[in-house]
Amino acid sequence: MVILMRYKEKIVKDYQNVSDLVIKEVQDVTIIYLETLANQDKINEYILKFSAVNKIPKDIEKLIPSPNIKKITNYEDLQLYLETGFTILLNSSKAIAIETKTELTRAVESPSTEPVLFGAKDSLNENFQTNLGLIKRRVKNSHFKNDVTYIGKYSKTLVSTLYIDNIADLELVSSVLKKLENIIIDGVNDIGELKQFLCDENKNVFPAFRLTERPDVIAKSLLAGKIIILMDTSPYALIIPTFLADFINPISDDYSKTINVNFLKFLRFTCFLIAIITPAFYISVMTFNQETIPTKLLLNFQEQRGGVPFPSVLECIITLFACEILRESDIRFPSKYGSAISILGGLVLGEAAVSAGIVSPIMIIVVAITFISSMIFTDVEIMNGIRQWRFIFLLTSCFYGLYGVGLAGIFFIANLCNYEIFSRPYLYPIAPFDFTYLKETLIKMRNTKRSKLLSKNHYKGEA
Amino acid sequence: MKKILFILSIFLLTGCYNYRELETLGVASSVLIDYTDQYEVKIEISKGEDETNVFEGKGTSISKALEDAVLGTQKELSYNHLNALILTKNVNIKETILFFLRDPDINNTFYIALTEDTKIYEGEENIGELVYEILNRNNARTFFELSKIFFNKNVDIVLPIINEDLHITSIMAYDDLEAKKEFDLSSMEINTILNSKDGSYLKTSCDNDFFVFKTNEVDTDIKIGKNIKIDIDIEASVIEYNCKYNLMEEKGIKEIEKLANEKLKKDVEMFLDDIKEYNTDIYGIDQMINNKYHNLKKNWREFNYEINISTHINKKGLLLP
User: Which of B14, B19, B22 is the best mutation test for A, with the most CBs of A within 10 A?
Assistant: First the structure.
């Protein structure tokens, strides 16, 4: 009893200068809540209305009609509940927390970064409960588990690890949980920030994890044996492990005819290479390996390059930089002004720069092809990765021509082969080769098995 | 730090070999080399689509003459897209081929032709491309194919001869890179067949008239045994027909196949006798003999020929009575 009375004193002391703290005394019960996080109507409905009429009995939690009542055993729990929108009831014999959270989130909206023409139109929002609910609508099984941890000394952000215990690799689950537990930080704002703590090394410029806002992608990943990390306040979920092949495999492929999808997959893979290699290949052809293109094309290029005073490499770097600036400003600027930037950029780059003789028209074509190809990826991180490699390829090609492109290619493949995420190779299913997972990523074929690297439960549809 | 220095040294100490900006290149389409008391060259440089400039130069060596030709253009000569190399009969072929072989950036799919007329650039534009098309259509050997033979002492080369109007007038057969015998156009067709290449138009007489057939597929097999056995299998179609045999009947077709076989056999025998006479081993028969009978001290010219020709008229649906 003494301890319980001390809780109140402690709260009063700890929460000095906290304007939204409300402490009410009703008969012999102390009611404490943070009015910014708690819903006033719920407090009235569950607690005040009830306690004002009757004398509060000792077994109060049995009488309160709230669906979520927690028993408080220590002061840390009390603080956590208070700060997550619960109302604390203290009386002489016990302390309980009653869920009275207010809705501080937006409604379930359509996906903004991963839209599909035909497919589910719901997406995650900043509310963990809503997000979990959206996933549970798709995976209805008692084997679907979610382990909860709180990260951040001050933010105490709820982070949940989702997996299906008889499909997912439990060793991977425990290593993910261990990593999450070892994160010591003041606060975490978004899942993008959290993922920095989960990958061992940041030498690879390609993203280590895939972020998604689509519950159907999450459900598919869970069924494949992957692990999902959900975080309160973040409208994205993290998929672990992620391979490079996953990025060129949007969910809409599952909803379309196989024969058409395979062509699109091939197209996407080609775009991935085009986005990296095209400027380097162009520079090689223009400055070293003129023999590789047909004579008429070469003469055409020569004619177009005639008025440009800069070397091809410099011209290429200028144009790429201008496009990067344009893209960055397009992302940062409010969308209402976006079209103005596009027109301005299009005019400056496409017309004026050519007329002014700063760049040649063919360079605009090369850079446009490069940028359009990189835009088929929805993930900004992979676009950034592609950009880094584009410049590495460009640098080697301006010293060695096509031989340099080959060297950079070897370096690129070796670098990717060397990369592992939670001991899973990043280039999987190509290296190591696995036809089972290949059928789900780089090509689309009927598949009855799960990847051996992801799950020990090999056959789909079996317990 | 060491790593960065290592990477930088890789780029800065070894890179940039052969770096040439495209606009500084003079893309040669064809080169004509003549030799009197010194080398005289004409270089045709592509300017744009179907436009060329011809530059002339003189010098005591090929390189000096080429340098002299492009002196005022501020361009660096590039043979990456060379279509044709045209030589006069006075030019030393060995020296010239070696000169172009030494250029690491040379395009090896161009053709070499001989000419007696150095005025071929007067009139038409883009001679290089025209010569390329003509020689390509006539199954001439590319520079790459020629250079393989060039280093093989047991095989001799054959070069086409073109006139001012860019028509092939004859072919020149060499023995150890020394011009030996000039053959006429009909011999060129036989040479094409013996090289297993199709596309020849062969005129054959029948009674007082003639018919022309085109080879669609040729398979020539040269085997060394007691004699030199040459089997030629030809799939051909009739192009012109003035004979009395009815081609709608099997018998008629057999008759003209027989006539074609006889005519071809005769021509091949004549051609082989000629090359035997001038010792120009353009099919590498000597090498075949050496491969089969090591240390046989018998020259290919001492062997007899056994020629089997089998012509089949296909595409019968195109035949009219």
Answer: B22
